[in-house]
Specification:
By secondary structure, this protein is α/β, with parallel strands linked by helices. The chain is 49% helix and 7% strand. The radius of gyration is 24 Å and the shape is globular.
């Protein structure tokens, strides 16, 4: 008998990073690391379910910037070169460690793993991660939801309604273009919600979204079932909130599963450990040490005297932790049942990169959890769409403004370190709306002048969208990649202002325009009119 539901949600997002002007660019490795450590291993576990004739349910948000990068042939070709370099390094490591039995075993493990991952990418997915997502989406096992067009922090963009609407409008367009179906759910960027946002979401066909716990618990009226059931907003959208207990078991630095001593230590990477003369061909050409993905030690404890990593022991530990996780869910559902008129719903949202990148064994843990739940048939894994088909009637509340950032509201993205960003974003959004209105009725007669005008206006919109990414303000607050985040923000602001100025004075630099179209190539089918208010009249 089903005693409850489990709704796992993996949020996958990276800011749009593409630098064809360089043979090597460090920030592009954010994408490559995520592909080979998280996205491909997760799809490979889904394939294992399929080959074993087993069913599963999983929800993933794939943000539009990530979708665009995953579908970019140039970046895909760079990823294959990246994997070739890892395979070469692992071969060198097997030679270097030929007389060290324990370490040689780990080096051999990496070599085989890298070969398997590259082969899966090229031969099974035909060099495109999206093919794996679409396959399982079409089978109804993976529910793919969208996000903001460039992960803009919507509450801080709302000075321009069109800026917020464009983030949602373009996101749904991108989703349909790449996945061939409408986006019915959305992961709000940073889970950030403000009053009346649901009205905009509804306008673009969104049926449900996810919030942090207090976004529901602080709603009006108070939710009868707390976060253990969906609620409906005043505009009829379903909202789901995070279950704190399942988050703590996985995320907590003190008691979370990833901290077990058997698991791989994330920080002890040979990119930092080995002699420069040896490792230099496999790190940044300027000599900056970076993670290579080859890590020989398990967590062991808070000591430099780490023990060698044992992949087999770590794999078995994921089974143990999966069983513990499932038993805890059974107890949780049992405790909640007397207070509810339906089986309780446990919503577990996580950053996808936790599984594989930060927690190397995470994909195996998730695989074993889904396997255990299917075996026991006590808690049923579901998607949001499935849950709503079982329980279409839910309490109506007005959710509270909230986010999943530190302290739960907006201060991570608006503080003394990054507040300078928003006066520019607001000015650019207002300027974009004005020029979009002015040229909304532009003739489609195909003249050279009209063609050029559209190219400039479309690129203006791209530069605005890329400047709006919440990642830049977040990284500034976190104190990581500050220089790059500031540079990227100022770069897009500068690009916008330079293009707009040259457009108004009829002095467009064609080389500059072509360069931006190649480098900042997100949303190839974008139409600048998405920023016009005229289509609302």
């Amino acid at each position: 008998m089903i005693k409850g539901y489990w709704l796992p949600v993996l949020h996958s997002h990276l800011p749009f990073v593409k630098h064809p002007e360089y043979d090597y660019f460090l920030e592009e490795h954010w994408l490559f690391e995520a592909i080979f450590e998280t996205y491909l291993p997760l799809i490979m576990r889904m394939k294992k379910f399929e080959s074993d004739g087993l069913d599963f349910r999983l929800t993933m948000s794939v943000s539009p910037p990530l979708v665009e990068m995953l579908d970019d042939e140039y970046l895909g070709s760079l990823f294959i070169k990246y994997m070739d370099k890892l395979i070469e390094l692992s071969q060198s490591e097997m030679k270097r460690l030929k007389n060290d039995g324990a370490m040689l075993n780990v080096a051999t493990f990496y070599y085989k793993r890298f070969i398997e991952i590259k082969t899966f990418f090229t031969d099974v997915l035909h060099s495109n991660v999206l093919n794996g997502y679409k396959h399982f989406s079409d089978k109804g096992q993976l529910e793919i939801i969208t996000c903001g067009a460039t992960h803009g922090f919507l509450p801080l963009l709302r000075t321009s309604t069109r800026a917020v609407e464009a983030q949602i409008d373009l996101a749904t367009q991108c989703h349909y273009e790449h996945f061939g179906k409408a986006a019915t759910g959305i992961w709000l960027p940073e889970c950030a919600y403000y009053e009346e946002l649901d009205e905009i979401l509804k306008k673009y066909g969104i049926k449900y979204f996810f919030l942090e716990s207090h976004g529901i618990n602080n709603g009006v009226p108070k939710p009868k079932f707390a976060v253990y059931s969906a609620v409906h907003t005043l505009n009829g959208l379903a909202a789901f909130a995070r279950d704190p207990e399942t988050s703590k078991q996985v995320w907590s630095s003190m008691s979370g599963y990833p901290g077990a001593p058997e698991y791989r230590d994330f920080y002890r990477d040979i990119g930092f450990d080995l002699e420069m003369d040896y490792i230099k061909p496999y790190i940044s050409p300027d000599g900056n040490r970076v993670f290579t993905g080859i890590k020989y030690y398990k967590i062991t404890g808070k000591t430099e005297d780490k023990l060698p990593y044992d992949p087999v022991a770590a794999f078995h530990k994921t089974r143990f932790h999966a069983e513990h996780f499932c038993n805890a869910r059974y107890e949780q559902a049992e405790a909640l049942a007397p207070t509810m008129d339906r089986p309780p719903l446990l919503v577990s949202p996580y950053d996808a990169e936790l599984f594989g990148h930060w927690w190397f064994e995470g994909p195996d843990f998730l695989y074993h959890v889904l396997l255990q739940l299917q075996k026991d048939k006590v808690i049923k894994p579901v998607t949001a769409t499935e849950y709503l088909s079982y329980h279409p009637k839910n309490q109506t509340i007005a959710p509270s403004p909230s986010s999943w950032g530190e302290n739960g509201y907006y201060d991570v993205w608006l503080n003394e370190d990054n507040s300078w960003i928003y006066r520019h974003l607001h000015f650019l959004a207002d300027s974009m709306e004005k020029v979009a209105d002015e040229y909304y009725e532009m003739s489609d007669n195909g003249s050279e002048t009209n063609h050029l005008n559209k190219r400039v206006l479309n690129q203006l919109a791209r530069e605005l969208l890329l400047a709006q990414s919440s990642d830049w303000a977040f990284l500034i607050t976190q104190g990581t990649a500050i220089e790059y985040s500031v540079k990227r923000t100022k770069e897009h602001i500068s690009n916008f202002n330079a293009l707009l100025g040259s457009f108004k004075s009829n002095t467009v630099d064609m080389d500059f325009l072509k360069w931006l179209e190649n480098k900042n190539s997100i949303f190839k089918n974008l139409d600048f009119r998405v920023y016009s208010g005229k289509k609302l009249t």
